[in-house]
Amino acid sequence: MGRILAIDFGTKRTGLAVTDPLQIIATPLETVRTFQAIDFLKNYQQTEGIDEFVIGMPKDLMNKDTDSTASVRSFINLLKKNFPDHQIHQVDERFTSKLAMDAMIRGGMKKKDRQKKENVDKLSAAIILQSYLESRL
Fold first, then answer.
1. DSSP codes, 60-105
2. Which of 86, 109, 116, 124 could form a disulfide linkage to 96, CB 3.0–4.6 angstroms apart?
3. Family, per the entry (predicted)?
4. How far apart are CA 82 and CA 22, in angstroms?
């Protein structure tokens, strides 16, 4: 059984999170530059194995597309092209950055580390992944 990998897509940076091999626990993995994301995912696939992808879909409070939605859809098409045998699930990503920041504060992370957007991105990906895992129960 391979891992499920979650993506918090951004035009500059993309946060990634993965499950354990049993697909039970979501863990932040890395934040990569978006233009390097597909290469990173290919390398990760070769070493760890990915069964499926989960990607955060940006929507506004009225559940309508945001300015970022088209970019995410383009990235999904790129994923489909590079990983044709993998399922890609879309998960509502509203409030994940806020939840990530709250989790870092509750976890006692220093302010300096909380200000690093890379930390917010990969933790947001973990929240997206955890939401997906809970929806499968």
1. -TTS-B-TTHHHHHHHHHHHHHH-TTSEEEEEE-TTHHHHHHHHHH
2. 124
3. Belongs to the YqgF HJR family.
4. 24
Phi, psi of 63 (to 5 degrees): 65, 30
Is the per-residue pLDDT at 102 higher than 90? no
Give CA–CA dist 74/58, Å, rounded: 13
**Which pair of tokens denotes residue 53?**
């992808």
* Per-residue pLDDT at 100: 67
Domains detected in the chain: 3-135 (3.30.420.140)
**How is residue 83 written in tokens?**
């990983």
When computed from its CA atoms, the radius of gyration of the chain, rounded to whole angstroms, is 14
- Please answer whether residues 2 and 48 qualify as being in contact, where contact means their C-beta atoms are separated by less than 8 angstroms: yes
Q: How confident is the model at residue 114 (pLDDT cuts 50, 70, 90)?
A: low
- Tell me the C-alpha distance between 91 and 72, whole Å: 12
Element containing residue 41 per DSSP (H, E): helix 37-47
